[in-house]
Amino acid sequence: MKKYFFVAAVAALALSSCSTITHTASTEAVDTEVYNRSNADLKVSPEKISYTFTPNNTYRRAGEKAVLRAAVAKALEANGNADVLVAPQYEVKKTRGLFSTKVKYVTVKGYPAKYTNVHPTTVTEAQVVNALK
Question: How far apart are CA 45 and CA 115, in angstroms?
Fold first, then answer.
């Protein structure tokens, strides 16, 4: 009797299925605009830098774009702690596996630049921006 009960219980578990619940929602668009009320000068270095970044698994898991952003950040940090890299060029070395591709290294080249003279927008600067729109 116990044997039949056990077989029936296993059959009931095997025949039961998992279900998926899907929730939907509707969203409403919100019209917003972001204004930057500050201006700054950008001082670009005349010398082009080059930096080779070898990502670890943490960066690789985040995707190729994250690896490129990390390479730029490390390049700026290593070359004078600049704020932005102007005209970046990337050389990406990848290896292909059976199911995925792996970024071996990234060489990034560009001109480091720093923001200087950060100040509130003046009336004349605002008029120039409005004229360009």
Answer: 11
Whether 115 and 42 have beta carbons less than 8 Å apart is answered as yes
d(CA 63, CA 92): 13
Measured CA to CA, the distance from residue 100 to residue 111 in angstroms comes to 33
Range of the domain at 117: 39-132
Q: Is 79 domain-assigned? A: yes
Q: Which helix (H) or strand (E) holds 107?
A: strand 101-120
Residue 92 maps to a domain: yes
Rounded mean pLDDT of 14-23? 62
CA angle 59, 65, 71 (to 5 degrees): 60
Q: Name the residue with tokens 């792996």.
A: 102
The answer to whether position 91 is within a domain reads yes
Nearest to 104 by CA among 61, 65, 52, 54: 54
Say if pTM beats, i.e. exceeds, 0.70: no
54, 70 in Cβ contact below 8 A? no
